[in-house]
Structures are given as C-alpha cells and as structure tokens.
Amino acid sequence: MSAEGELIAERIAALAAVSARPDALERVHLSPEHAAVNALVAPWFTEAGLAVRVDAAGNLCGRIEGRTPGLPALLLGSHFDTVPDAGRYDGMLGVLLALAAIRRLAPEARRLPFALEIVALSDEEGTRFGTALSGSRALAGTFDPAWWDVRDAEGVSYREAAVSFGLDPARIAEAGRAPHELVGYLETHIEQGPELLDQDRPLGVVSSIGAATRHTVVVTGKAGHAGGTPWARRRDALVSASEMILAGEAIAREAGALATVGTIRAFPGGVNVIPGRVEFSLDLRAESTALRESTLARIASAARAVGERRRVSVEWRENYRADAVVCAPALRAAVENGIAGATGAAVPAPIWSRAGHDGLAIAAITDVAMLFVRCGNDGISHHPDESVLAADIDTALDALTRTIETLAEH
Ligand code: HGY
Ligand code: MN
Ligand code: MN
Ligand code: MN
After folding, report:
1. Closest CA relative to residue 237, chosen from 220, 225, 216
2. Helix (H) or strand (E) holding 115
3. What whole-number distance in Å separates Cα of residue 371 and Cα of residue 20?
4. Which of 321, 251, 239 minimizes the C-alpha distance to 280?
5. Who is most buried in 27, 183, 219, 317, counting CB within 10 A?
6. Best residue for ligand 1 mutational test, from 83, 122, 353, 375 (most atoms within 8 Å of Cβ)
7. How far apart are CA 371 and CA 335, in angstroms?
8. What gap in Å lies between CA 307 and CA 221, rounded to an integer?
9. Best of 92, 122, 258, 382 to mutate for ligand 1, by most ligand atoms within 8 A of CB?
C-alpha cells in the first residue's frame, strides 16, 4: 500500500472513531459527532491546499483554484454521516479519496481549466430526521423547508439541531450552488454490493443511480384481548401488515426491483393485546423511475386488497423520493478512462447503483458521475463488516486522479 493509501487508512480509522456510540459507528446530521468530524477533517483540507468553510447546511467544503481564480469547479466528495451500526467506508472513503486526489494535483492546480472543490456532505442517509440527502439538496437549492419542523427520536427538531450546530436556518439558501459555478460532480463510493467482487474487478463505472422511494405505511385495525377476541372478530394490524410485506416482496422480486422493510412498530405493544395499529417503513428501489412507480402501484394495490379482506385501513406517507439519475456520458467516459489507466484492463460493464447517493440531488444543478470501489466480505454494507481491499484504495486513487486529468485535457 502506498504512503497515500496508508494515510487514507489512518484517516478512515480516525473518522470511524468519532461515533455517538461506544459499541458501533453511528454519526448523524447536526450532531456533536458531525461537528467533531468537521473539526477533525478541516485541517486535512487546509493541509492539502484547500480554502475551507462550513456551508449554511453544515457541509464541510474546500476549494483550490485552477489556472485562473474564480473558474467553475469540478466538485468531488461524498458524505460523512452514517446509518446505525455502520461500516467505516460508506461515504467516508469517497471524501478521503477525493481529498487525496486533490492533494496530489494541488501542486499543478495552476494548469487546470477548472477549480477543484470537495464537499463532505452530511445527512445523505437521513438517519436522524428521515430527510435523506438534505445536505446535498441544500447545495442543489432544493432543500425542503418542511424539514425544519421534523423531529428526531428525542423530539429535537431539525431547526433546533441546526441552531445548536451554529447554523442560521434563515440562511440555508446560501448553501445553494448555481449550475454555472460547476463543471460536474464526481463521487467515489464503495459499491455496497457484490457485483465487482463477483467480477473480480477493483473498480466500476456507474451507468445510473437508481430511483428510490421511502414510505411509512400505517395499518390500522382494532386492538383487543389476545384470548377473548374470536377469530371472526379480529382486525389484527400486525398480521395484516405481515401479509402486505410478504406480498410486496414477491411483487418487487418479480419486477426486478428491491423492497426492504427496515423498521416496524406495533401498538399498543402488549404481549396479550391484538395490535390495533402498525407502522412499517418501505424502502423501494428500481433501475428506472418508471419501474419504481409501477412496482409501487402494484404493492399499494396488493396492500389495499389485504386491508379489505382483513378489515383494516392502510395509509401511505411518503418520506423520500428520488428519480433515477443517468450519469453524464462525458464524465462517465473520463471515469472509464481513469479506470482503464489505473487497472491496465478493459473497463467492466457499467453498473446501475442500487444504493442512493448524493448525485441524486446534485444532478439538479450539474452533471454527475460515480466511480465505484469493490466491496470485500461478500459485498456487505450498512454493517460493521463492510470492507474494502487495501490495494483497491491505491487503485481507486490512481483512477480518480486520472479521471480528473482526463477532464482537464478536454
Ligand atoms: O440508502 C442508500 O441507498 C444510501 O446508502 N443512503
Ligand atoms: Mn449508506
Ligand atoms: Mn453512501
Ligand atoms: Mn453516496
């Protein structure tokens, strides 16, 4: 592993140590850990030659000028926040690879036809408030003001968290970037799946970032005594929800989409009480927006049919929606050139990203592209066993640097 690779590994360990929990990696938007990570990394940005700032949304930003001051920037980066019990590479590796590439190119930045910017985005996951991509949405100028009043599990509102983080909610628009300020957004990210591992490839190019939607589904029946209520009189919200969830999985499998129920809560929650109400989350993804929509409609129809048969009501609350984003051909070609140069091999067929990424939001203001890094450990992610191969970090840095140089030549 190169000295740069070693430094990235050390910095991954330092970032992973900043967690809200002693037993697992967990770092959420506008938390003390988010502030601690921004404070930890800002000197790394400065040391690489970047002018550093925290934007009005709490994103850590850096910029180094190109051949003349004020040129549009190639934006690099990824996110710092995590899911609960996270791995240590999702998001963080992309920020550190972008930083290492900029550090390599800084001495010759004066010949680049664009500025280089890096952004360490927060709230890509939406773990704390359910407001996924809010950091990149602020950068894209599409921040949803309704988010200010969303509360976390402790009852703290996004607005209160922002103020205690030192932000002024009234100035969120200042985080917005205009299209003419950017030449593109290039994110390096672990694949979060087994495709590259199965193909025995260290790196991959992304064709598109898949469409996704997240809902809270509320099933309402009638609570009652677990013994005294005869079968014919039961309106059991949990059994009904279970039937809906299984139907949804079957529909998604058949459609080639991906459906996940990550959380479920049953009320009132007594072991000898028939659940009168259930709330479960549904995360649905597909390669295209059309397939996501048609699959969602089929799942909703199946849930309605179960509700009618079991005499329970079904309410859908959408929390998040992102239409599929096709990576820009010119940026994608530069990534393919970077991969070919770094690996000395033909570039593997592009992969559509099953995972969502900040490019879904940033595509609103500029072209996006992604460089994928192979995951080890059967491709597992959003889990402490998430891993990458040490050699792949070096190869990814080489490919990312070459990608930027390819863009500089055109
Ligand atoms: O959920 C996702 O796909 C991403 O990891 N936030
Ligand atoms: Mn993630
Ligand atoms: Mn991620
Ligand atoms: Mn991402």
Report:
1. 220
2. strand 115-121
3. 29
4. 239
5. 219
6. 83
7. 7
8. 9
9. 382
Question: Binding site membership for Zn(2+): which residues?
Answer: 79, 90, 125, 189, 382
Question: Cα of 53 to ligand 3 centre, how many Å?
Answer: 22
Nearest to 78 by CA among 324, 381, 357, 401: 357
Q: How far apart are CA 214 and CA 319, in angstroms?
A: 6
Token readout for 368 is 């996006």
C-alpha separations of 369 from 68, 120, 299, 404 in Å: 25, 16, 31, 12
Largest Cα–Cα distance of the chain, in whole Å?
80
Whether the Cβ atoms of residue 271 and residue 308 lie closer than 8 Å to each other:
no
ipTM rounded to 2 decimals: 0.90
Task: Give me the helix-helix angle, 289-310 and 237-255, nearest 10°.
Answer: 150
Distance from the alpha carbon of residue 130 to the mean position of ligand 2, in angstroms: 13
From ligand 3's centre to the CA of 356, what distance in Å?
7
As a dihedral over the C-alpha atoms of residue 182, residue 188, residue 193, residue 194, rounded to 10 degrees, the angle is 130
- Model pLDDT for residues 45-62, shown as the tens digit of each residue: 999 999 999 999 999 999
Percent of the chain with pLDDT strictly greater than 90: 97
pLDDT tens digits for range 302-347: 999 999 999 999 999 998 899 999 999 999 999 999 999 999 998 8
What ligand 1 atom has the least distance to the C-alpha of 285? 3
Ligand 1 pocket: which residues have CB below 6 Å? 124-125, 355-356
Q: Which amino acid residue places its CA nearest to atom 4 of ligand 1?
A: 356
pTM of the model: 0.91
- Ligand 1 nearest-atom number relative to CA 381: 5
The DSSP string of 156-208 is -BHHHHHHHHT--GGGGGGG---GGGEEEEEEEEE--SSHHHHHT-SEEEEEE
Ligand 3 centre distance from Cα of residue 357 (Å): 6
CB 120 within 8 A of CB 188: no
Q: What is the pLDDT of residues 198-220, one digit of tens each?
A: 999 999 999 999 999 999 999 99
Locate the ligand 1 atom nearest the alpha carbon of residue 192 and give its number. 5
Alpha carbon of 132 to ligand 1 centroid (Å): 9
Whether the CB-CB separation of 120 and 18 falls below 8 Å is answered with no
